[in-house]
Amino acid sequence: MNNSQTFSSPFLHKLGVLSLITIVFFSACRENTILPSDLIPPIDNINTFSQDTFTIITNNVYQDSILTGGKRNSTQISSSPNLFHALGTITNDPIFGKTHANIHVEVLPPVPNFSFKSGTNRVIDSVVLSIPYRATYGDTINNSTQTFKLFRSIGTFSKDSAQFEFTKDTIDNTLMSQVAVNLKTMKTDSPLVSGVKLIPQIRFVLPAWFSDSLEAQMTLGTNGAFADFSKYLAWWKGFYIQADSTNGNTIGFFDTYRTKLNIYYRYINTSAQPDTAVDVFAFDPNICNRFNTITRNYTGKIVQNFINSTAPAGDSVLFLQNEPGMSALISMPYLPSFENVIVNKAELIFYAVSYNNFTDTLMYGTIPRLQIFQTDTLGVDNVIPDYNVFGSNIVDGKATQYSINGITFTQYKFAVTYSIQRLISEKNTNFRFKIMGLNNGYPAAYRVILAGNKSSNPLVKPQLKIIYTKIIK
Length: 473
Description:
Shape: elongated
Low-confidence stretches: 6-36
Radius of gyration: 27 Å
Mean pLDDT: 87
Number of domains: 2
Oligomer: single chain
Structural class: mainly beta
Largest sheet: 12 strands, mixed
Number of helices: 7
Strand content: 35-45%
């Protein structure tokens, strides 16, 4: 079965103290928010009002510190089977510049005190490191061949500490193996091994000296690497897979959770007959670690002039990527001073635009779903409480098609009723929203350009729409 896919080229939060009337409101209004919209009080402009002219200011900011391995707080990201690691380089994105991704991964013998199958005259024929392919992002129309190189990791990276996209591996610079991979065709490239057709995967044939090292450690017995798992990882700390940083226009995603070290060998069995076998060392989520190193470089590209913008009046366009990468900061400077009201419904709405008549979007696609955070003037990010109260399907953020004056735009909409109610009730002048691509297990995939509040086209400017009921005093 082929589980691969190609992307279409194409918290913690401290609750504040609310007034009694606001608490009563949430007891009743949570239900309203997830029920059909016709249960929201009718807009009569006497008690209940609708307003979409609240001032919002949008700025571009760079967002890093995505966890790609190890553990942070209670999140053990390295043991998640739904995290896939990026490998490859995009050098020709005309708007967002260059993306480069490398991988660190570890394997272990199947059991402590491991030994090869019984027999005599064992000869290792080959050792192959294999990692299943999962998906491709980027230019899959043109030639997508890249060279990946394999090295020995010599740094220690505990699975109980955090590895981010900026964490760099420490390696022995002796090249162990390299392969040329066509990411354009990889989803249908199924290698044949001993007459068996395997799922698409990347395969590195390791050098003879590695086989000799394995044999030497086995000979050492209880003093060698095979005595227990900690000794093995002290001897062999992992593999580092490096993509060519100067060539490529695609990124491949690989299932490092299912990394295998396949040892093929011949021996004389107990019946004195020649025999063959394969032993498999694998990634063990309970002991091993794995992480991604991802770099972005916007030099000479349009986005470079917008990184960490501090324009007081906001930016005209917003450049968004999946983490790590560009995100957008949304400020609502006058909302904390708005009169105390009951917020029945609040939505943030954004529209996709383009610099190149969307020709670049045909190659690189657009973000299928955005995520929204709350942040503050110190840059501390947290998940908005709306996700916990209503669920992601209500908050949404999915890309949908929306027509304005006969022109179809890609629209992103967030239901943020809980957050806006709290902002108004608490008069929190430090509150901000932040949006970027949803972290969906494919780091560094996707990007989109949205209209900012300073856009010259009033039809596509970001909107904050609120339906509210005035509190009768």
